[in-house]
């Protein structure tokens, strides 16, 4: 029997597919067994030469080419609409397309350029994709909920339906960006896999046996397939960094209050112990920087009451470049490496990627010490409580709108029905515990000044984003490596390092899992399945170090050849 | 019958009094009827000439004189210990004294100076008083609770008892400040009057018929009597600004996250919808600036996980000076004035002070428009909810430790016993409402760019801190003028303007109160009682505008002769 939610979900799924121009539809979608990797040559076969050239140029390069008059905004937009259409058919990464509106903006931009002989802003003609939490006028936001179809965040007659735009969307338009699609998310947003009852499962384009990550998994997959040069996701437990890492992209999880979240849809909105933050993912570090820096140039602190009055600080960025150019030993960067958090050890490809970054940095003359922080266990317990303060009320209400079932991934976090909510006192106690842990961690970070040899504490901490290159479906069992960063509200950048290699990446003979959680991760490793998957690391910085960490991402990316 | 809490309170009260050196004890304390105003000549009679000179020099002047070698840190410390001792006897403003420790630090500072021919830091030898929320080693923190006597925040065997120091205390010591006393607060901190079962009631030294304000009321009274050149209070609903205003002082309520609150005692600690903030009060604007700027120079963001990485920004301060020096009309400052919030009208002296500031600014060539913001009623309801999220659990537990009764002022806020706590969902809803109001207010602020003639929105909003010059005992009936600033998390500076004058300050003939709340304030006005009381205003700036607002405070203070 087809229930109401099923037919509504199917209608929406069809509508997404039908929104892709007929000329760009694929006759046949190969299975993962037939075609594991759909990036590179596979997707290129459906594009012409100029489309390939455009879509394989990064956001910075596109901005330059359009500003130079080499490419029109329209031709760039068309190329990305085409490639995004292919991407969606291959891995289910889109929730909304609005190609006509995008082409109309592109035309206006070209017209402006022709008339004024200059760009409208630093993102003039650059296509930017958006996670399906951003409100864009004339476009729906479902966030993966069947019950949100045809509504504004679940409310049918809300006057904002179809007209409201998130603050960031307004700022991107003012910068000249071309908005053209919104990307898939797991319903509730609280998963490292992207799955919902509308589009199904978003697969990893580099390896369609594994997930694209989540919750900004559509962004990860789309940008991974170069169907977008860069886009914005959000991160409350790893949701920018996980898809960036799993798709071989650069990304940043800024400190809360740096970039504007104002006017976006969210889960458990109003929970303010651990805030979700918005940030960019892109194919190059310099593109992530461009997207961060240009948004800050829009003075978001005058438009979002939670944003801090802090423009892009060139001096903080330059300080990194000055150090890496200097040859003095006092002038080196210093890092710590956390090979394991002591709770779950990373699988072999991830351990190899972490080691490769350490090796690259030490070879370049920088110092890397061991990170021995206060146990993350306490912090993870604190952070995970914030996800269930309301006992699941908010997400269960959203499911209740349509009667749709929870995915297995979400069921494991939120159960079949809401449970008892936290009281104000319990929330306060958790906030105090969190602050106390943050203080302890901060003091530990300061204490590394004794070890670095520079008299200053480490500049960043190199560690995994997840214990695996990417999770296999329904096997995302451990979030500790991403969540600790949210609990501390640190700035973190993701850097792609390598790909899994079945000939190199094996657990050592007789490996003994350190506990049950580690055992799960150990048992879910399969060198054959993972072969070819992207492997990335994150470098974690202190609060409000976006300029510094992006400079480090660019530098380290260069060192390891990305 | 003398109960246990009464004898414990009395013993503590006696201990405070006995901690004042015998030589500084007053034979007789005149009643308010006998001696309304104990500032100026009255208190001076008990001091020698040099003590008067030292204690009537502001913090900046003291720092200069000590740095020049004119005064020793010891002589400065002794003078302030003496004057603070007199102050406490006259108005009950101290909870703790630690003069011996202060003199020992002063001696060390003098020794350092003699040896190195330079100061240890920019506050070398400057006495700084602290509200009784700061933990200082070897000194108790009762926060006015009988049940906290002999404990660490109510816990008897806490290892931090007697040894722990708040982050700010460490930073002040590093700057060379001399710490010597902690000042009175209302139990719970949630009152604009300072009253508790230990020290009783802290009176306004300029007019002992009225209150000294709260909750940093001991700071206000002590600095008002020049028993301290400057000190630190905290503000969650006006607690820095109210005592600053009521005692003719300058003060600043910074945006949350600017100055370090780490390691301080608090009420409802962990409630994080509206955060209490720490900030200085002093006799001059430049001293408030000195205390703010020097703390920021200690990089508190490396020691307090809630502080934002934002050093003192000279450019923001200089921009104000550049504008006021410029003669161009485009270069003027622009303000808005909120003569009334539409809920309660200010009493005549306050209305006159607001008008005087507007007149001074317009005469100096600056523009002042009318402030017509979204109704504050919504915001006040949101902010007041945050005070009772836990239904009074935290404060009732503190009272329960000793069985002491609540003061009338606190009973009206927290009742006889705890009530139902807010749930996580209710707190989230309130957080969403708050953010939405903040956004609306921010947009209104931006919109004033259309009215100012400079193309920029107003630089600040001039308005009352309270509807009265100071409250009469048990008549602090309306907090709207201070609380709206906390709800919006704006930076606000207090500027003393004038004193109440019974010959000038009368309600207009036939004044009709606009509602019941206004009626209370109207009926509580008495020109005779208020005669001579300080009258102040606040100028409210946007978030994170401490440098700008302190420059404005200094400039406006100069314009009106303070």
Give an account of the 3D structure:
- The structure is a homodimer of 562-residue chains.
- By secondary structure, chain A is of the alpha/beta class.
- Chain A has a single domain, classed as Amidase signature (AS) enzymes (Alpha-Beta Complex).
- Chain A is 40% helix and 13% strand.
- Chain A has 21 helices and 15 strands.
- In chain A, the strands form three sheets. An eleven-stranded mixed beta sheet of chain A has the order 1-3-2-8-10-9-14-15-13-11-12, sandwiched between helices. A two-stranded antiparallel sheet of chain A has the order 4-5. Chain A has a two-stranded antiparallel sheet with strand order 6-7.
- In chain A, helix 7 links the parallel strand 2 and strand 3 (178-183).
- In chain A, helix 3 packs across helix 5.
- The longest helix of chain A has 24 residues, at 424-447.
- The termini of chain A are far apart.
- The model of chain A has no long low-confidence stretch (mean pLDDT 97).
- Chains A and B meet through helix 16 of A and helix 16 of B.
